[in-house]
Amino acid sequence: MLTLKFVLHNLARHPLRNALTVLGIAISIMAFGLLRTTVEAWYAGVSASAANRLVTRNAISLVFPLPIAYAGKIRAVEGVTHLSWGNWFGAYYVDEKNFFANFTVDMRSYLDLYPEFVIADDQKAALLRDRKGMAVGAKLARRFGWKLGDTVPLKGTIYPGDWNVVVRAIYAGRYPNTDETQAFFHWEYLNERMKVERPARADHVGFYMIGVDRAENAARVAGDIDARFRNSLAETLTETEQAFQLGFISMSEAIIMAIRLVSGIVIVIIMAVAANTMAMSARERMGEFATLKALGFGGGYVALLVTGEALALSLLGGAAGCALSVPVTRVIAHVLGDYFPVFLLSGETLALQGAASAVVGLVAGALPALRARRVRIADVLGR
């Protein structure tokens, strides 16, 4: 109790300097958390992937299609419980800046395979009935002000032309990390037009989505699927949904590494600031430390006081930084929702922020505490 009183008393001796130090630590810890959250947002698709889902694509590249005739052979592989297919459509709404993730899929099987997209029963029935029906995420619907029954004119890029689809369903995410900024409509609608306009591209899909009975069977099922199409005109590459998502993220690995590096540098900088504050405080109180030793307090106790003060300053700043991170993350998620469909402050990030603030305090107080422990009574009081 006496130690705590000493620590609190010393914190109050230089309120402006300590307040500024706490503020600096708070901002740095908040910045560290936001950078960590940015990295997690980049990996949101990976974390949302299911262990019992596979993706089959052309072995050469995703841009090369696969015949729809492969569906029957894939469905016959032991361990396959669900099968769907689709294409990356790549259209935009009215203007090129209004771009969003959009796919054509085999609707009924796709919804069975992805239960995390929650759609009301009446909307689902209307979506399945209408060949031009489209399902959109709740965030995407809010972004463009779409309502059920609205006809949406899409401008095709990969498949040029005007594509008029009707909003028949607005889905919500079952989990916090479910992407609600996507749209998908019927693959049959695309295929019918391809048969008329571009027959060579008809009856082809960009990828197959496969559900397996157990996650531990995923590797075997993937191998069996690829073996069936080995030496064919369109060989396949089957991988887990997580690996498929990681393939896209690897293209921006340099950016992610830079963000991680900056987050580490932020902690090092604030560690130096906190260490400077504690060094100044310790130099000013060397006489007090010598007096405490003269009164019978050991060097270890004096070092504990200095370390406790540094740790208290850092933890106060860390707590403030964590508290600030919550509303700031929500604001960023609202403003940058088009670029980061999922931007959530996770419990792991909060724990890392707390751990970082504790490390800053311990490291910043280490050298001043060592000096205070070694101070000699005669040298200080003699001066």
List keywords for this structure.
2 domains, alpha+beta, 383 residues, 13 strands, eleven-stranded mixed β-sheet, two-stranded antiparallel ribbon, 15 helices
Describe what this molecule looks like in 3D.
- This protein is α+β, with helices and mostly antiparallel strands and 383 residues long.
- It has two domains: 2-44 and 252-382, no CATH class; 60-234, no CATH class.
- The protein contains 15 helices and 13 strands.
- The protein has helices at residues 2-11, 15-42, 44-47, 70-75, 107-113, 121-129, 138-144, 187-197, 218-228, 241-249, 253-284, 286-294, 299-335, 347-374, 377-382, and strands spanning 53-58, 66-67, 80-88, 92-93, 102-105, 117-118, 133-137, 151-156, 161-173, 183-186, 204-205, 207-212, 236-240.
- Strands 1, 3, 4, 5, 6, 7, 8, 9, 10, 12 and 13 form an eleven-stranded mixed β-sheet that branches. It has a two-stranded antiparallel ribbon with strand order 2-11.
- Helix 2 (15-42) runs antiparallel to helix 11 and helix 11 (253-284) runs parallel beside helix 14.
- The two termini are 32 Å apart.
- The model has no long low-confidence stretch (mean pLDDT 87).
- Its main location: membrane.
- The chain crosses the membrane at residues 254-275, 295-316, 350-370.
- It is a multi-pass membrane protein.
- Residues 19-227 form the MacB-like periplasmic core domain.
- Keywords: Cell membrane, Membrane, Transmembrane, Transmembrane helix.
